[in-house]
């Protein structure tokens, strides 16, 4: 299994996953042109090569390129009924019969990839995050949530790779220029994970095996990549020092795609 974070941040998110002949795009939060360019440059694939497109929720930074993508790819569009109902008019596909409704807690299979959508707490209609499992390894993509529940921690244990939200530094957010109503939304149970929130979740989630963690969905105004990395590393390793030679942290960006990674049980 191979994947690539094409973009991650408060204003654009997309990830590509490939396993055999199965080629999945998760979210389309960039323009169609940008999606196509990054997919081609990092993964040597075209939009027409996709076999499925999945969506976590209907916010613009996850569906911005949906309509353009749907014109260049014939892949079915997987999303919850709530996400479909909440799509803004500009993001509604021209062919609604291409939409496949999925439900949190109901896994499904696409070409050897077991996909488990699960509910998250966010201010969207019916948002989900995803765990992907294959014979070679597992990947969890968990962003846009106000907290990580005990049930989610149990579901997420034992993955080889995590793409996990570290949206903001709480002190930067509180002292920053955002109006208070927006700060309260971000800090709330239906908002976004802070660096500290993510770190404490990882303490419970990470197994004793090697793991990669991509620090994702960073705010451009209320976080810094180096601060997110330092915070997560310090908190996790203070609590789980045995992970010092098993945990690898990676930065993500809205401006550029990450290098593609092959996932296997011996990834680290």
Automatic annotation (TrEMBL):
InterPro entries with a match to the protein in the record: Metallo-B-lactamas, RibonucZ/Hydroxyglut_hydro, WalJ/YycJ-like
Domain of life: Bacteria
Listed Pfam families: Lactamase_B_2
Sequence ranges assigned to domain Metallo-beta-lactamase in this UniProt record: 11-217
PANTHER family assigned to the protein according to its UniProt record, in alphabetical order: EXODEOXYRIBONUCLEASE WALJ (PTHR47619:SF1), METALLO-HYDROLASE YYCJ-RELATED (PTHR47619)
Protein name: MBL fold metallo-hydrolase
Organism for this UniProt entry: Alicyclobacillus sendaiensis PA2
């Amino acid at each position: 299994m191979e994947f690539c974070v094409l973009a991650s941040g408060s204003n654009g998110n997309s990830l590509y996953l490939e396993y055999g002949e199965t080629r999945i795009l998760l979210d389309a939060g960039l323009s169609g042109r940008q999606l196509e360019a990054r997919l081609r440059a990092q993964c040597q694939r075209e939009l027409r090569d996709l076999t499925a497109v999945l969506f976590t929720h209907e916010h613009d930074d996850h569906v911005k390129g949906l309509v353009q993508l749907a014109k260049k790819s014939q892949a079915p569009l997987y999303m919850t009924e709530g996400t479909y109902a909440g799509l803004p008019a500009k993001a509604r596909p021209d062919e609604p019969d291409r939409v496949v409704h999925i439900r949190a807690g109901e896994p499904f299979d696409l070409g050897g990839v077991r996909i488990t959508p699960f509910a998250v707490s966010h201010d969207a209609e019916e948002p989900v995050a995803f765990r992907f499992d294959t014979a070679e390894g597992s990947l969890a993509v968990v962003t846009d949530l106000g907290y990580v529940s005990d049930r989610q921690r149990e579901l997420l244990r034992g993955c080889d790779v995590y793409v996990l939200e570290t949206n903001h530094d709480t002190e930067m957010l509180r002292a920053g220029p955002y109006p208070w109503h927006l700060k309260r939304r971000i800090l709330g149970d239906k908002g976004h994970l802070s660096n500290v929130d993510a770190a404490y979740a990882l303490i419970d989630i990470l197994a004793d095996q090697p793991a990669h963690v991509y620090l994702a969905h960073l705010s451009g105004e209320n976080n810094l990549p180096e601060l997110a990395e330092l915070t997560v590393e310090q908190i996790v390793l203070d609590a789980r020092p045995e992970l010092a030679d098993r945990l690898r942290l990676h930065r993500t960006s809205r401006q550029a795609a990450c290098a593609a990674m092959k996932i296997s049980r011996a990834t680290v």
